Amino acid sequence: xxxxxxxxxxTVQFIGDLLENYECPVPYHQFxxxxxxxxxxxxxAPPPIEIIKNIWGGKMPNFRDMEELSSFMNNVFMxxxxxxxxxxxxxxxxxxxxxKIKDTEKSLAELCVVRRQxxxxxxxxxTSGDAEAKFPEIINKSIAHLEEIFGYFEATHxxxxxxxxxxxxxxxxxMTFLLNDMDKIAQIEINDLIKICLSQRVVSH
Length: 205
Hints:
This protein has 7 helices and no strands. It has helices at residues 3-21, 28-40, 48-55, 66-84, 105-126, 137-162, 169-204. Helix 5 runs antiparallel to helix 6 (137-162) and helix 6 (137-162) runs antiparallel to helix 7.
């Protein structure tokens, strides 16, 4: 493992432990996607404390004192937030959480849940939690595509839970292929949206 890979793995572990310690209501991969949504959005991000309150359902985590609050905010917004800004660079594209997908309903159900959390999290941050937020048409189209993919993962997960998605290995294999395609498309859509937002900023300046 390279030094950069070790550093990244260490950061993921550190932030993940921090979120668990303060009982974050969303998993690490969703938290990361929410922050990236805030970072790349053309909407001006609210103050860091408001972002944390939004993620924690309108309230602050249970900090014992101001020193603990300061330490948390420093780790999340001085260290972690700044590292995520790199994803605005096309040479550092956004990637979903890596999953080992197998031709089983259990594996596909996990894929649907995780991607739904990541896409939903990204859109939550991107819109600052405002479903009525106004954007240029080109951005609205990208958001609509992501919402469609979110819906596909959601519907597929519900189908797996209620009826299953196939009685034969071939049927499950076909669904694996389709979901992997959706997975790739969603990742491309998010990175394209990041590029669009960056170009809009350049034009506006």
